[in-house]
Amino acid sequence: MPRPRKPRTCVCPHRAGFAAVFKPAGTPLKDLEMLRLAHDELDALHLCDGQGKTQEEAGECMGISRGTVQRLLASARAKVAEALVHQKALAIAGATADLAPLPCGDLS
């Protein structure tokens, strides 16, 4: 049985570990359900919908198969749609240190 986790003090406990949190205006974050968008889901969404790349091109950029891009994209789109329609917070997970920069160029 693992040892109990020590209590931690965070400046913003609802955002701890996330790169960004988007939420409906006028509702405190603590009152909202939060959906978590993984960094690879965001990358797939950005490459395909933001930059207009095909799933195959996005897969080459990310170093994964087209099928994996398709699954990531479907998951990301579903989470974004649910957050918008049902007024939920959308938390974007921060990039981990082992992720290499994309070979496809600028993400902006």
From TrEMBL:
Gene3D superfamilies assigned: Winged helix-like DNA-binding domain superfamily/Winged helix DNA-binding domain (1.10.10.10)
Source organism, top-level taxon: Bacteria
InterPro entries recorded: RNA_pol_sigma_r3/r4-like, UPF0251, WH-like_DNA-bd_sf
Pfam families cross-referenced by the UniProt entry: DUF134 (PF02001)
Membership in a protein family: Belongs to the UPF0251 family.
Name of the protein this chain belongs to: DUF134 domain-containing protein
